[in-house]
Amino acid sequence: MEGVDSAAGTQGTRDGDAVWGDTAARGCTAAVVFAAGACLVMLGFLATMDMESGPGLRDNTAPLVVYLCALAALLAAGGVAVAARRSRAARGAALCLAALLAWRMCTVAPALHCWSHNSVGRADDGSYLCYDR
Asked: Which of these, 21, 64, 12, lies nearest to 43 by C-alpha position?
């Protein structure tokens, strides 16, 4: 009888189908987790203040960017835990997210000393000055 597993006596489940289903579920889960991490990294890029656009004070969004990047790093680690041992694509996605996070943190790092202030300005020498409005 085709489609019947004689050892288990069930219809339509075979060892190969179960393994394939588990692999597909892990792959889909990892893809969703990596996509969520990538969205958080992009939100971090959008939330970053542009200090080069002109003189004046800007809202200090550095803490928000740090929180978004930390959550994205946790999601990337979760995606690696779910699928990296079996998938080169998952390792590649994790490396891409890690590179984006490193770049984002390098651009935000000079303003981190203004963590507890609500505004940031740029001095003539290029350093960041902290203000409370």
From this structure: 64
Buried/exposed code over 65-86 (b: 16+ C-beta within 10 A; e: otherwise): bbebbebbbebbbbbbebbbee
pLDDT tier, 51 (very low <50, low <70, confident <90, very high otherwise): low
- Predicted TM-score (pTM) of the model is 0.71
Q: Of how many residues is the chain composed? A: 133
Distances in Å between the alpha carbon of 38 and those of 13, 14, 50, 89, 127? Answer: 36, 36, 21, 15, 30
Name the residue among 99, 16, 14, 104 with its Cα closest to residue 68.
104
Could you read off the pLDDT of 60-94 as tens digits, one per residue?
888 888 999 999 999 888 888 887 667 787 788 88
Non-local (6+) Cβ contacts of 45 within 8 A are 104
- Between CA 34 and CA 43 the distance in angstroms is 14
Determine whether 43 is exposed, middle or buried from the number of CB atoms within 10 Å of its CB (0-12, 13-18, 19+).
middle
